[in-house]
Amino acid sequence: MSATSTAVARPKKSVPGGSKSGGAKSRGSKYSHKQLWFGALAWVIAIVFVLPYVEMAITALRPKDELTGSGYLPSRFEWANFVDVWDKSTLGSNLKVSLLVAGMSTLLVLVVSLPAAYYTARKRFRGRGVFLLLVLITQMFQPTSLLVGLYREFYILDLLDSYWALVLVNGAFNLAFSVWILTAYFSAIPVELEEAAMIDGASRIGALRRVTLPLAMPGIVTAVIFTFIAAWNEFTVALVLVTTPDKQPMTVGINSFLGAYRVEWQYLFAGSVVAIVPVVILFAYIEKHVVSGLTAGSVK
User: For position 120, what pLDDT does the model report?
Assistant: First the structure.
């Protein structure tokens, strides 16, 4: 055969399962479908949880003559309900009391729990495990089961029908959770960071303020939001210990719209909408810190 003879073309090897780009495209498309299904499921769950709040807002704007109607949306929105609810009740004073009690309770919890949690995390004293166990056990007690004793105690202290009774009760019953979660955060922060700061000239308090507290900020924010919400939503103790209408918090003040023979549904829901606004604003403002606080430690 001559050198100029044509070479026989070899058949190309076929790649099992198709081309590489086709397989990647298929995998990418499959992943997109999975994302789509998870997104749709998340929207369905979100709508289910949001619908009661939407119904509450709609009822707050519903005219009085349409409260028992079958339609989901009213024929008109009665914005005057939000004006009347301030004029016909002590809702303004109740809102101030709730902000004062929740804020003071949260501050009291932080002032007590921060040094207690820091000392528990840094010192291995005798009975440390028993102390943490007792702190956790106190979470099992509910204020409702202790109402008789609480009423008697504040009667002796002459603190009935006062803001301080609510502040002390809410602070005491939320202190255990704050101590527990802050102890876990302080224990997760290496003590060598504080020792390095003290070698550079910082005092123990200075190292705590400049090094430890900023690193433990997600845990502090988590304790703040949970304490504030718990104090804001408390009802039973406030109903028993405080009897003057303008000294009661929002949870008790809203209850005044529930009469013996009729219920002012439009004012009840209008007050409920007003009551959730401060909590929503607070949670939206520090939500990223709460999420990081709750998930801290999940990834090593």
Answer: 87
